[in-house]
Amino acid sequence: xxxDIQRLNQRLAIAQPSATYRIIDSVAERRAKGAKIISLxxxxxxxDTPAHxxxxxxxxxxxxxxxxxxxxxxRSLREAVAAKFQRENALDVSWQDTLVCSGGKQVIYxxxxxxxxxxxxxxxxxxYWVSYPEMVQLCGGESRIVTCDADTGFKxxxxxxxxxxTPRTRWLILNSPSxxxxxxxxxxxxxxxxxxxxxxxxxxxxxDDIYEHLIFDDQTFFTLAQVEPRLAARTLTMNGVSKxxxxxxxxxxxxxxxxxxxxxxxxxxxxxxxxxxxxxxQAALAALEGPKDFIQHSRAVFQKRRDRLVEQxxxxxxxxxxxxxxxxYVFAKCAGxxxxxxxxxxxxxxxxxxxxxxxxxxxxxxxxxxxxxxxxYLRIAYALDDASLMGACEAIRxxxxxxx
Length: 404
Ligand code: PLP
Prior knowledge:
The protein is of the alpha/beta class. It has 14 helices and twelve strands. Helix 6 links the parallel strand 3 and strand 4.
């Protein structure tokens, strides 16, 4: 066999597998061997998909929604998506201005793959969702990481944005509420960023609103194209049913934006996955058109968990965290643990060391902040029942108290 038969696409060869999936796989391996691990890694709600949505999917199968659909999604779902953007985001959208993909992830990948050329830059505020820089790299672009630390609430400031824009900037990615910090941009903050963007008409904006409905303390969610309609012609507003309706496995995401961009993404998708799953599209339709009490319920549950978790974590010597405004993650600073030695004799040099030691010695799985571009932090997901969450806090406290 030729030595280079396993030669990969160069961009794929240097891409990193998702750090979160790596830890989730390691948890699964340990559990298979009998270990009792509390995983605070999950990027998905722990609730079941609402009953009326599950029922709609079963009916869809019975009624023959089992064939290929249009690449951009079935018209009824695209109409519901347009209605959602009008109703919830005050965006002036008709069904032709929408695209349905196999998850929000595919929306983002399609957008980058359809538009990036060698040397194009994408501004990615850090901490970032792990997939952004990898997708940019896979699509031939360069990420320009802008670190946004705790002083600015982990949010991009207008000055930092202005300093990061170059003639080669193709995209800015904005994620609110944020994975991993839960930070939410207010209307005023978006206005201030919009000022900078209006002065830079060569920049496209990707608004990743996937956690839109997980926003606490009676705040109101705003998205960039709503706050500054003059930016709508170059903003791709992305959303989906994964987080809002506990439908991560159904793989339905959607977007609205300028037609030239949606057309290009559809062209790409037509040679790749074609239309999203026909059954899932019917389920997503039921979610978007059905009752919204599920969203209110899950928001209230997450807010309660957040409050307890933040209180417990801040009581642990060596950890420190602010109360996140949205999503279901706490991004806790672990600087107080760095340089110390665990009960098993490990010196904790980095947040990765902390995460590994917690897994090995306390049977608690978290993701190190370095995976999201800011260290030393731990991302702690609270998409888990109260008893397990409190059990995890106990185990983390025990681990920290035993440090030398
Ligand atoms: N954007 C962010 C910030 C996410 O955290 C995720 C999933 O974890 C996605 C997008 C993709 O969501 P999905 O592909 O499940 O719709």
